[in-house]
């Protein structure tokens, strides 16, 4: 699941950004709010999981978010 989520993030960050499970979404990836909304929509389309701002606050790393999505797939 991490690799799939990582691939989705690569659509919204600089190509030279290294993404690991410990990468912090907001601070290390420098994603704009619009990018986060688009990314959340990608997750919803792919997995049926609607991410909220609270979900991003509670799952601050890419790995934590991937686990959250995995545990909430419909």
Query: Which structural class matches the secondary elements?
Result: mainly alpha
Supply the CATH architecture.
Answer: Orthogonal Bundle
Shape: globular
Q: Rg from C-alpha positions?
A: 11 Å
Text of the CATH class: Mainly Alpha
How many individual domains?
1
Strand content: under 5%
Total beta-strand segments: 0
Average pLDDT over all residues:
90
Short characterization:
It contains 5 helices and no strands.
Could you explain how this protein is built, in words?
This protein has five helices and no strands. The protein has 74 residues and is an all-alpha fold. It has a single domain (2-71), classed as ACP-like (Non-ribosomal Peptide Synthetase Peptidyl Carrier Protein, Chain A, Orthogonal Bundle). Helix 1 (2-9) packs across helix 5. The longest helix is centred in the middle third of the chain and has 15 residues, at 33-47.
């Amino acid at each position: 699941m991490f690799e799939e989520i990582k691939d989705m993030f690569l659509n919204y960050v600089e190509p030279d950004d290294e993404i690991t499970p410990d990468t912090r979404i907001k601070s290390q990836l420098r994603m704009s709010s619009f990018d986060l909304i688009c990314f959340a929509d990608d997750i919803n389309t792919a997995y049926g999981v609607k991410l909220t701002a609270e979900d991003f606050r509670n799952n601050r790393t890419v790995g934590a978010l991937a686990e959250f999505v995995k545990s909430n797939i419909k």
